[in-house]
Specification:
alpha+beta; 89 residues; 2 helices
Length: 89
Amino acid sequence: MKTTYYPVDDILEIRFSNEPVSREVSCGWNLSISFASDGSVVEVLILEARKTGLDPTLLEDMQDLQEALRLKDEPSVSWESVKTQLGLE
């Protein structure tokens, strides 16, 4: 996993792999998730990361995000609940 924070634009980019992106899903205006053809998460892009309450410099936030993304495969967990869990509502 590689994280890049662009402080001037307040954009947090989290890259999980170098697989080619086959589709992207927008989960609201400030959260975009890119998937590989096998369904795995390639990248997460969060606009206004600090403004939404994330501190891109803290490892705990990255671990919370990783945990939330793992939950996407659980049928009882929706993307809405993931966004709520991350405080991105």
